[in-house]
TrEMBL record:
<dbReference type="Pfam" id="PF10604">
    <property type="entry name" value="Polyketide_cyc2"/>
</dbReference>
<protein>
    <recommendedName>
        <fullName>SRPBCC family protein</fullName>
    </recommendedName>
</protein>
<feature type="region of interest" description="Disordered">
    <location>
        <begin position="156"/>
        <end position="177"/>
    </location>
</feature>
<dbReference type="InterPro" id="IPR023393">
    <property type="entry name" value="START-like_dom_sf"/>
</dbReference>
<dbReference type="InterPro" id="IPR019587">
    <property type="entry name" value="Polyketide_cyclase/dehydratase"/>
</dbReference>
């Protein structure tokens, strides 16, 4: 059963495509530009970079009884495409896909397009999504891309970077048994 139509937003960042790609490929950086509506971030593994890196967070939305969402980087095609797959909703039954597409622009700039799509499992999930979620997602993602542009171009509007829960785990990080 298809979900709500995909929602796309885009912006142009005045940075080279490789730099934007490297920043987006580290999922720990995503909290910096999405923390206005995605909160309580936690990494799902120690390595936050590349395919397999993931995070769990809450979606701030009025009336959302099941706010937790998980995403994992499933595909990375250097330097043009990053695909995140995940789940959200009651019992994590709603599948999600987020795609960052990067294209080089004039003067060393990069066009970043983010497309998000959901696949609700039940008719009730689809009905709840139809009650204004599409517009909210488009507005929030547009703001996130503006913040991404601001962070990469001049370091402004930096939020907090995600870390792994529980503190140090590696022997070289002064963890004591």
């Amino acid at each position: 059963m298809p979900g709500v139509d995909p929602v796309s937003t885009s912006t142009v960042v005045s940075r080279p495509i490789e730099e934007v790609y490297e920043y987006l490929l580290d999922i720990a950086n995503h909290q910096e530009f999405t923390d206005h509506y995605l909160v309580d971030w936690h990494l799902t593994r120690e390595d936050s970079y590349g395919v397999g890196a993931g995070a769990r967070f809450k979606i701030k939305m009025r009336g959302n009884r099941f706010p937790w969402m998980d995403v994992t980087i499933a595909e990375a095609v250097r330097p043009h495409r990053i695909v995140e797959v995940g789940r959200t909703g009651k019992f994590n039954r709603i599948r999600t896909v987020g795609v960052y597409e990067l294209t080089p622009g004039p003067g060393g700039s990069t066009r970043v397009t983010f497309t998000s799509e959901t696949e609700p499992k039940l008719l009730t999930d689809k009905f709840l999504e139809s009650l204004g979620v599409r517009g909210m997602v488009k507005r929030k993602n547009a703001k996130a891309l503006r913040r991404l542009q601001s962070i990469l171009e001049d370091g402004r509007d930096r939020g907090q970077r995600t870390t792994i829960s529980g503190g140090a785990r590696k022997p070289a990080s002064n963890f004591r048994l």
